[in-house]
Amino acid sequence: MKKKLIAGILAGLISLSAAFTTTQAATRDEIAAIKVSKSGKFNYWTKESAAKEKLVAYVKDVTNKNSKNFIPVEDRIATFDMDGTFLCETAPYYFDGMLFIHRALYDENYNSSKSDRDFAISLEKFITSKNEGDKLGSSAPHQAAVFEGMTYSEYTNYVEKFMNTPVKGLSNLKWGEAFYLPMVEVIKYLQKNNFKVYVVSGSERQLIRVLLGDAFNIPENQIIGTDIEILAKNQGKINGLNYDYRKDDYLIRSKFVIKNLKMNKVSAIYKEIGKQPVLAFGNSSGDLSMLNYTINGNKYKSAAFFILCDDLDRELGDIAKAEKCRKLAEKNGWTSISMRNDWTTIYGDNVKRQ
């Protein structure tokens, strides 16, 4: 009887311990602490993942000084799209789009223009209707407009505050933690092997810098995104483009310049990096040009990887879209990564679809 009682207590303690150690969404500190050794020991990838093994084999080959495919450290350039590649984009929409809707419609301290407000209303309806295709046109000019005139310190604080907003459709997850843990491992693994990682995204550049912040060891000058004009506080009022920065000036955000998608990504890579990447990671047709630029006509052995949104249980996936993307990857010679089959978790075991 005594043995049964002790066994019952021990079982209860083990059960209680398991409850406390159940994986939640990884915190930003935990994301920052993720490490993957040179042997390629990944914790969030399935053992049978062919995509992971292909990446590990590639890295081992091109970092081996005795290999004919050896790539010098200075040319180990890897480019990553962000939304849908290593950050959630489906709960229910892109981070920058949700930030815009909040600013235009729900910020009590801000009065948006009729144009921006009307677009935000249309965008919100579009998101909830779940119609395929962007029938509204680009939201980028409106996203820039609602923050026009704001200093970069003010904008940073605004984005950081919004990062604490829970995502919709997934439990126990905030926007500032909504990174795909398996892809975080890939980034850390490449950094460990002396690859310089660039983020090349359609999201606005400064937003990406704030969002990644202390969770990723990616310098600000390795962030390439959609651009807006940067002005001094009095620029445009005095002398226009010939304005000189004064000792009492500060920088403010201005109008939309260019959306960093499709061929614009390739142009930006060449302009800002000056070298052809040897690795590229994406998830949509907006990344097609970047991935093909990486693997075609490259003097080094190169590879491109394409994430498929095929998980309906741990993520708000889309099987039809995933199948189209799989065919696109096959057509272009990219390696597909299945969220459903290649990853043991996405955000942490306690993040579930609602």
Structure description:
With 354 residues, the protein is α/β, with parallel strands linked by helices. The chain has a domain at 28-92 and 170-228 and 259-342: Rossmann fold (3-Layer(aba) Sandwich). Helix content is 40%, strand content 13%. The chain contains 13 helices and 7 strands. Strands 4-3-2-1-5-6-7 form a 7-stranded mixed beta sheet, sandwiched between helices. Helix 7 packs across helix 9 (205-212) and helix 10 packs across helix 11 (288-295). The radius of gyration is 22 Å and the shape is globular. The two termini are 44 Å apart.
How would you describe the shape?
globular
CATH architecture of the domain at 28-92 and 170-228 and 259-342: 3-Layer(aba) Sandwich
* Mean residue pLDDT: 91
User: CATH topology of the domain at 28-92 and 170-228 and 259-342, which one?
Assistant: Rossmann fold
Beginning-to-end CA distance, first to last residue:
44 Å
* CA gyration radius, whole angstroms: 22 Å
Strand content: 5-15%
**Broad CATH class of the domain at 28-92 and 170-228 and 259-342:** Alpha Beta
Query: Biggest sheet, strands in spatial order?
Result: 4-3-2-1-5-6-7
CATH superfamily of the domain at 28-92 and 170-228 and 259-342: HAD superfamily/HAD-like
Number of strands: 7
